[in-house]
Amino acid sequence: MKIIMLGAPGAGKGTQAKRIAEKWQIPHISTGDIFRMNIKNGTELGMEAKKYMDQGLLVPDELVVKILLDRVAQSDCKNGYVLDGFPRTIPQAEVLDAELEKLGEKIDYAIDVDVPDENIINRMSGRRACVSCGATYHITYAPTQKEGVCDKCGSELILRDDDKPETVQKRLGVYHQQTQPLIEYYTAKNILKSVDGTKDMEDVFQSIVSILV
Ligand code: ADP
Ligand code: ADP
Ligand code: ZN
């Protein structure tokens, strides 16, 4: 099963993608995580991507598409995957579709996690990310056992630079302009499913499960 998660920054795509990946035993592929790992390791790709990420802008399509296509060509993806944060533009979606078509494959579902802008700032300012394993938490809605420490690996948690309110506003604008048109794109392909992302995490997951089973 091949699934795409759509939604504003902070809508809960990553949270739900991880749960889908676990339940269906398929890889969770986050382009944001791939970039952050590259930044941490000081690669050339990371340095280039960081320039855009810090400003709340999208990384150019050419840089994103190649790493995503390489990733989905790996053998662990043969039974499907859940994409989190890709595609984010119409050209990215078109390239993905064209590549899949060559292989006689297609995306099965695009799930839009719908959360209004008013809720997003609050979600993002409370998000905490682990510096080493990438796990995410929320100070109110998904707290760790010990404040500031990752439950999974014991490393320090941080507020991502791009989760500060000024950058979040910018990212929301970019989302509406460049990413939201994908909702129409996948509606036209008859694979769009929308879930109410303002509900609590478990309820959102149950809505998704009822779509996928
Ligand atoms: P969030 O989960 O909050 O929506 P991500 O971790 O998915 O954020 O992405 C962080 C940043 O990485 C984005 O703001 C953007 O700069 C970059 N990025 C991630 N995926 C893509 C993509 N598919 N196209 C362009 N830029 C991307
Ligand atoms: P995205 O990947 O779309 O950027 P995340 O999954 O990282 O979003 O979620 C953003 C923040 O909101 C995180 O701190 C997460 O713990 C929290 N969160 C996710 N889903 C919900 C929900 N349904 N209710 C409340 N908080 C949530
Ligand atoms: Zn961790």
Number of H- or I-type helical stretches: 9
Shape: globular
Listed once per kind, the bound small molecules are: adenosine-5'-diphosphate, zinc ion
Q: Using DSSP, what is the number of strands? A: 8
Structural class per helix/strand content?
alpha/beta
Largest sheet: 5 strands, parallel
Q: What is the string of SSEs from the N terminus onward?
A: EHEHHHEHEHEEEHHEH
Radius of gyration: 16 Å
Distance between the termini: 11 Å
Tell me what portion of residues adopts beta-strand conformation.
15-25%
Approximate helicity band: 40-55%
Strand order of the largest sheet: 2-3-1-4-8
Write the layout of secondary structure elements.
Elements: E1 2-6, H1 13-24, E2 28-30, H2 31-40, H3 44-53, H4 61-72, E3 81-84, H5 90-102, E4 109-114, H6 117-126, E5 127-130, E6 136-138, E7 157-158, H7 165-179, H8 181-188, E8 192-196, H9 201-212
Parallel strand pairs: 1-3, 1-4, 2-3, 4-8
Antiparallel strand pairs: 5-6, 5-7
The protein binds adenosine-5'-diphosphate (2 copies) and zinc ion.
